[in-house]
Amino acid sequence: MTFYRANLASLTKEAFSQPPKANFITPRKIGILLSNLGTPDATDYWSMRRYLSEFLSDRRVIEAPRLIWFFILNGLILTSRPATKGKDYKTIWNRELNESPLKTITRAQAEKLQAAIDAGLLGPNSVDVVVDWGVRYGNPSLKSAIDRLADQGCDRLLLLPLYPQYSAATSATACDKVFEALAKMRRQPVLRVAAPYYDDTSYIEEISRSITDRRDGLSFEPEVVVASFHGMPAETLAKGDPYYEHCQRTGELIRLRLRLPMDKFIVTFQSRFGSAEWLKPYTDETVKALAASGVKRIAVLTPGFSADCLETIEEIGEENAGYFFEGGGEEFVRIQCLNASDGGMRLIETIVRRELQGWI
């Protein structure tokens, strides 16, 4: 025991008599992390397979029994679907930057937010604020963005999932990935997660303004406006996911803001996958039914998406437009997402100012 105490004293004395060898920094910055769903790195088979494998292996997205889903995913889906989805992505690919539109738009949102902050958005005496971005599936990953922010001295982190409506398959899984990255860090930043903004006044105002501006520029008046949200399996509602309720609330607020009667504004759900029942009414079936009923002119918006992507550009603007024309429709307009437009950035800036209260 005497020997142990003597050695411990010697080690302690030696440790505190030497200056630290590591170059420690004192973090004083706030990091803002914009998060969106994801994107493949390219449109080839293997790039698409990697992306789909990561996406469809997420237990938040696919809640089927693991063993059964393993064989379905690897034996069926990942053998054929990458080629099919790769062809779809080619139709919307940003060839100038060799990336998907979602990546281009999310980067622009981060860059414009940083420029606004540098120009005094948060006040002249605010602490340093650094903006970065990442995606849940694909690149740049959320972990890589967190590492970059930590390297720049950010000891506080605001995660802003760019999903107006909360769902376990979107907002929650983004949080899961961020928590996973933080769990491996010795020096964790303090974390805040922005609340869903499905009924935020600024969000409803900017979405409604985008509809009005687009409609005013048309040579026709849409008879019906369709608000198409990304679909979810119907069982998620039974399990307590608030997504359906959030979508309905968003739709109702937009309808009231536009002063449209109930039969002229329809909330629908798109992008269903597999044979199980999903949230209804389905967008494609609704579009076909409208054409069959004699409606000739419609406008479709996608208020659940913060950036245009495959589901908005190709699925709505091409596939569903095709259904409408085939059924006898004459005029179809897809209203773009807010993206990095002035309205889109006003919304993001409003959310950031709200969520940074007490830190700035």
Description:
Helices cover 49% and strands 16% of the residues. The chain has 12 helices and 8 strands. It has helices at residues 2-17, 45-56, 66-92, 101-118, 142-151, 168-182, 201-216, 234-238, 243-258, 283-292, 310-326, 342-355, and strands spanning 29-39, 129-138, 154-161, 190-193, 224-230, 265-270, 297-301, 331-335. The chain has a 4-stranded parallel sheet, sandwiched between helices. Strands 6-5-7-8 form a 4-stranded parallel sheet, sandwiched between helices. Helix 7 (201-216) crosses helix 9 (243-258) and helix 7 packs antiparallel against helix 12. The chain starts with a helix and ends in a 5-residue tail after the last helix.
Helix content: 40-55%
Q: How would you sum up the global shape?
A: globular
Q: Structural class, from secondary structure content?
A: alpha/beta
- Counting DSSP E segments of at least 2 residues, the number of strands comes to 8
Q: Which secondary structure elements does this structure contain, and how are they paired or packed?
A:
Blueprint: H1 2-17, E1 29-39, H2 45-56, H3 66-92, H4 101-118, E2 129-138, H5 142-151, E3 154-161, H6 168-182, E4 190-193, H7 201-216, E5 224-230, H8 234-238, H9 243-258, E6 265-270, H10 283-292, E7 297-301, H11 310-326, E8 331-335, H12 342-355
Parallel strand pairs: 1-2, 1-3, 3-4, 5-6, 5-7, 7-8
Helix pairs in contact: 2-3, 4-12, 7-9, 7-12, 10-11
